Amino acid sequence: MVATREDLEMTFTAEAAKRGSTVLRSDLAHLPSLIAGQASARYGVTSSLATLVPSLQRASEPDGSWPATVIVRGRLGVAATGSVAVTEPDRQDRSMIFLARRIIFLLPTGSIVAGLPDATVFLRRALGAGMRYVTFISGPSRTSDIEQIAIVGAHGPGESIVVWIPDWHPADD
Amino acid sequence: MTEQWRERYDRAVDDPQLQRNLLAFQRRWSGHREHAFEGRDFEALRQELAAVKNDVIERLPHYLDEFVAAAERAGAVVHTAETPRDATARIVDLARSRGVRTVIKSKSIVSEEVGLNEALEAAGIRPVESDVGEWIIQLAKERPSHIIAPAIHKNRQQVAELFEAATGRPVDRNDVDAQLAVARETLRDEFITAGMGISGANAIVAETGTVLLVTNEGNAELTTILPRIHVVLVGIEKLVPTLDAAMLQLELLAPSATGQRATTYVSMITGPADEGGELHIVLLDNGRSAMRSSPRFADALRCIRCGACANVCPSYGVVGGHVFGYVYAGAIGLVNTPFHSGLEHDTGPQSLCVSCNACQTVCPVDIPLPRQILDVRAWVARESGLPPVERAALALWSRRLVAQTGLRIGAKLAAPLRTGSFLNLPGPSKLTSWRKLPAPAPRPFRDLSLSLAPDPLDGPVGATLRSRTIGFFVQCLTDWLYPEMGVAIVEVLRALGAEVVFPRTQHCCGLPAYDAGDRTNARRMAKQTIRVLERCHADYIVSGGTSCVIAMLREYRNLFLEEPGWQIRAERQAARVYDFTTFLDRIAKLPAGSLAGGDAAPATYHYFCQAHNVLGQDQEPMRVLSDACGIDLRPMPEAAVCCGFGGSVSFTRPEMSRHILARALTNVDETGAPVLITDNPGCIMNFRGGVAASGRDLTVLHTAEVVAERIRSIRNQRI
């Protein structure tokens, strides 16, 4: 049986929650208010996303330091693992993804596959488009290295939020 | 065996904190792993990945060329290193030529293998480990004790002390969140200021020249993004042909490593990430080509470094990775250490394997680790020789008449030391303080006058094996220590309508010598056994010694790898050899309720570990004991985890075995059952001795004794 997009999104939501992510939905018009509710006043937006969603660019107030929250474009959701693929081409943007304390992924609703084996089509396309650094992220950073106690927020963000956007259709997707 | 290893072993077996940490970790991991593989066909997935990796091993030069070409096309610089020195020299040169003074590293066991940190420090370059566990270990100036959980042997107090010394700031002794914050803040500065990032790789993809990295902390990403120069140090066995194969590996890696469905981060790096950045990939051989050309060890190159083999190992659960392994901890370390670090570093570790075979059952690429560990043991025995007493004992044991005469004399000499069914040995001993040793039987099984003709029970159950002839292979411990178990087996077979034949010239199957690494004497005894079986006119050969059955079914194949004629003869016999439980379940097919009745005490069942892990025994004992005999069986936690007997290991490493037995007995205690049933005379000897030494009120029985008791009860009722 072939899973529908809705099935995949339901699986994604359940799996992402298991790995500590919060999954939300918003249309583009309501995105700024949703972000305002989730992020502190200062947040960073990766440059590729800022071009695509100008309303966010306006809200951004980069001052050179690492922002507490970063908003990043998710390229693909993986339902079975609740993962989001990111491919930021800019080094500064890429650094921000791992240095912020909170990460918010914006993801067009159609960009989803069932499992990691299904992500190879996306990967080959990404590589073909010169994307040299692809990361699948499943929830907040974590470690169990001290007495095997699981703690979120090791080196990377300690909070992870995924926002599905149904009316967003980036041209290069 | 090095003196340092012996010191580490002595310290580890007396370290209760270490054992608590390891046991808690192993139990938690097992639960998580099971959950992570839920709804997925682990066996199919691992065979698929094993086939992919086999192809890589077979066509390694081809895939290496493909990878190098693709990586260079993407802008990476690829270096090859035959030896650790080649690898470290290349990386030190790179750092020096670019004026790098600090390198930040993400977890790389290969860098431990080549001694990279030492080489960098010697060159005046400061390496900083960024994985929290690795940083703890670096501060403690130790080696990782687990591939995935390097600091598993440390507690929070020790971590706080190390962080305090490193940062010069007070660190809370109990607050692990605060400790993690110290690590994050300190290491963040290091990420930002380091001139070079060094990582390993979980896989490298020939198709695209991609480097795949997997972490939960995000440190690999910061290591490879922030510094402008990224160096990947990777063993050539990490190659996979395609992105699809890389994804398949990911499906198995996280569940096997940490019991997660997926790790937080999976990064795929193809060429330098930025303009002006550098990506150098150092491909390390260091014994891998030698492994590849060895028919016995090439399979170990499939390893994806998940650490699962350590997580199920009962020996590792006692002594940890500083003792059970060298650079690589766990079963894989016992196999690859001779190739990567030298056989001398494996002499001690390999001696700790109890051959329970649990490691292979969870290996995501189905490496025949148990067989390979015994091959290493034979290699050690060949190079260093066995201890003189063991060598002499096995040489005598391998000669049937000498051994049997010696056993009869020994039994007579030991008679005054007999107290009940145990030997009362004078003085305290590390062999007997935790487990009483059994006294030899007054008469071995082979001296008993038994009727072997059919003596069927009334009704259909008595016709179960009608017209069948069963050859009985008694097994040495049953013969000389527990003849009543042999009597029980014969009684059951006759009651089911079979005729039993007992080949009188039978001796040992050779397993003790095989387990000890003495292949010459193992082969002598195996050949003698095969000849005896060939002359035995029977439909089936049945034994209550399941370990001997497994030796005949599997180990003979390896033992006679270089003697195909004997291999064929062995396999011909193996086709009709069964352990008692499997035979009753699959061949006799005892109907449910056929031997039920009476009010037997509740019992619990402990699987002989190899029966579960090698024969795949699962519900068979339950069908025989619970369904057919009506025994009230209470489930036992960790019912298939080894009891610590481990062939001769409980005699050569009693300090470790006593911990494994204590774990098993605690699990039995949890059931509250007054009877423990199991299937192999070695385990029975171990359990009975442990029960007697600890003063528990627990009866330990072989499955055959329970079934025979049911048959006796039925016969008595009908009189």
What is the straight-line distance between the termini of chain B?
63 Å
The neighbouring-strand order within the major sheet of chain B is: 1-10-7-4-2-3
Question: Which spans of chain A of ≥5 residues are poorly predicted at pLDDT below 50?
Answer: 58-62
Q: What would the CATH topology of chain A be?
A: Rossmann fold
Q: Which class of secondary structure composition applies to the elements of chain B?
A: alpha/beta
Quick one: which chains have the greatest interface?
Answer: A-B, 46 and 61 residues
Radius of gyration of chain A: 15 Å
The helix tally of chain B amounts to 34
Radius of gyration of chain B: 28 Å
What proportion of the residues of chain B form beta strands (DSSP E)?
5-15%
Question: Which assembly state applies to the chains in this document?
Answer: heterodimer
Helices and strands of chain A, in N-to-C order?
HEHEHHEEEHEEHEEEE
- Tell how many strands the DSSP assignment of chain A holds: 11
CATH superfamily of chain A: NagB/RpiA/CoA transferase-like
CATH architecture of chain A: 3-Layer(aba) Sandwich
Instruction: Tell me the count of domains of chain A.
Output: 1
What is the average per-residue confidence, as pLDDT of chain B, rounded to a whole number?
Answer: 96
Task: Tell me what you see in this structure.
The complex is a heterodimer of chains A (173) and B (719). Chain A is α/β, with parallel strands linked by helices and 173 residues long. Chain A has one domain (5-139, 150-165): Rossmann fold (3-Layer(aba) Sandwich). Helices cover 30% and strands 26% of the residues of chain A. Chain A contains 6 helices and 11 strands. Chain A has helices spanning 5-18, 31-38, 47-52, 54-59, 91-99, 120-128, and strands at 21-25, 43-45, 69-73, 76-78, 83-86, 102-108, 112-113, 133-137, 142-143, 151-152, 159-165. Chain A has a 5-stranded parallel beta sheet. In chain A, strand 9 (142-143) and strand 10 (151-152) form a beta hairpin. Chain B has 719 residues and is of the alpha/beta class. Chain B folds into 3 domains: 48-286, 3-Layer(aba) Sandwich (Rossmann fold); 289-384, Orthogonal Bundle (Fumarate Reductase Iron-sulfur Protein, Chain B, domain 2), CATH 1.10.1060; 415-718, no CATH class. In chain B, strands 1-10-7-4-2-3 form a 6-stranded parallel beta sheet, with helices on both faces. In chain B, strands 8-5-6-9 form a 4-stranded mixed beta sheet. In chain B, a hairpin with a 2-residue loop joins strand 11 and strand 12. In chain B, helix 32 (654-671) crosses helix 33. Chain B is elongated, with a radius of gyration of 28 Å. Chains A and B meet through helix 5, helix 6, strand 8 and strand 9 of A and helix 2, helix 8, helix 10, helix 11 and helix 12 of B.
